[in-house]
Design a protein that fits this description.
This protein is mostly helical. The protein has two domains: 48 residues, no CATH class; 162 residues, no CATH class. Helix 3 packs across helix 5, helix 4 runs antiparallel to helix 5 and helix 5 runs antiparallel to helix 6. The chain is globular, with a radius of gyration of 23 Å. The N and C termini lie far apart (76 Å).
Length: 221
């Protein structure tokens, strides 16, 4: 009889089932074509089955908002106990900003969905907590960006990221204040939705400024 320990010592358990390496196949064909097909498939499903989206959207907002709050708190704890330094690690700061944008989109999406149904105090409080935690995340990202500007100098990318984060910070502050009024002053949730919609043109102006003004300002033409 062959023992489990003997297998481990001889390395038999670590042998692959086949000698076929499928990594290049997945990387060059399945992953690439799959990534291109996902938005096309999503657009097809939305056009063909609009009722599916209306049923799934509230469920996503309800399930993911509390999970994201817990994830952000855990992320802060991990930053405190690990050697990860957002002020020096450019890749970590990039991931941090992507996460910030994702949470911002989730807040907007959740508010839009919550305003369509019956008011739920627990959901409103979760949104308020999420906006508050995300505001702290944004402050940390802004601090890291300003530090990098001071240490490594001004570049178009750093200035664009700084401006975008400042716009998001202002938007989040307004959203958090309105959610506070909704939770503790019993204001209707529509005030948050109006705040979100009223700020969207600011993003449009900033995008035009970056696309048109940046090349002129930094002599790229």
């Amino acid at each position: 009889m062959v023992s489990f320990g003997g297998l481990c010592r001889h390395g038999s358990i670590h042998k692959p089932a086949t000698n076929l390496d499928v990594t290049p196949l997945y990387t060059q064909y399945i992953f690439v074509w799959g990534a291109v097909a996902v938005p096309i498939l999503a657009a097809y499903l939305i056009r063909t089955f609009p009722g599916l989206v209306s049923r799934v959207a509230p469920l996503i907002a309800t399930l993911f908002t509390p999970v994201v709050v817990i994830t952000l708190v855990a992320f802060f704890i991990s930053l405190a106990v690990t050697d990860n330094n957002l002020f020096l690690d450019r890749e970590s700061l990039l991931v941090f900003n992507v996460m910030l944008l994702g949470v911002m989109v989730l807040i907007i999406f959740s508010v839009a969905e919550a305003s369509k149904g019956v008011r739920q105090r627990f959901g409103e409080i979760v949104l308020f907590v999420l906006s508050f935690v995300t505001l702290i995340v944004n402050l940390l990202a802004l601090s890291a960006i300003i530090y990098r500007l001071d240490q490594f100098g001004l570049t178009p990318n750093r200035l664009a990221v700084l401006g975008s984060n400042m716009l998001i910070f202002g938007h989040l502050t307004l959203i958090m204040l309105q959610l506070y009024r909704v939770c503790f002053q019993r204001k209707p949730l529509i005030v948050v939705e109006q705040t979100i919609a009223g700020y969207l043109p600011v993003y449009g102006v900033w995008a035009l400024l970056v696309v048109i003004g940046w090349p002129l300002f930094f002599n790229q033409f």
